[in-house]
Structure to design on (115 residues):
């Protein structure tokens, strides 16, 4: 089965969940996470990890969709440089994942974990 024959299906409610996750993981909600860590650190950390994974899953779906769009555009426009188009999409994907990384790291950095 070739990549061009595959169209990954985005879970129907992933965009809705992603919006909630983005709000929950914003810097404005650090206090919510702090209170959760005080009550039950394991539960709060588990919820934070699930939010992080959902944000990453949504970004993977976006990245696949955008890359597929670049491939389709290159197929229909012979003068479009496919390598540049794909590299630009990969740069965009990497930048978005770095935002997710830094957001997660910032929230985790709010807590003192004893190892």
């Amino acid at each position: 089965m070739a990549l061009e024959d595959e169209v990954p299906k985005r879970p129907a409610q992933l965009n809705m969940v992603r919006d909630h996750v983005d709000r929950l993981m914003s810097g404005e909600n650090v206090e919510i996470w702090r209170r959760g860590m005080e009550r039950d650190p394991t539960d709060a950390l588990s919820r934070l990890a699930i939010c992080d994974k959902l944000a990453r899953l949504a970004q993977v779906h976006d990245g696949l969709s955008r890359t597929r769009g670049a491939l389709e555009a290159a197929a229909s426009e012979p003068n479009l440089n496919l390598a540049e188009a794909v590299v630009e999409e990969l740069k965009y994907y990497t930048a978005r994942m770095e935002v997710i990384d830094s957001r997660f790291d910032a929230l985790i950095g709010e807590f003192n974990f004893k190892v």
Q: What stands out?
A: The chain has a mean pLDDT of 85. The chain has one domain: 14-109. Residues 70 and 84 are 10 Å apart (CA to CA).
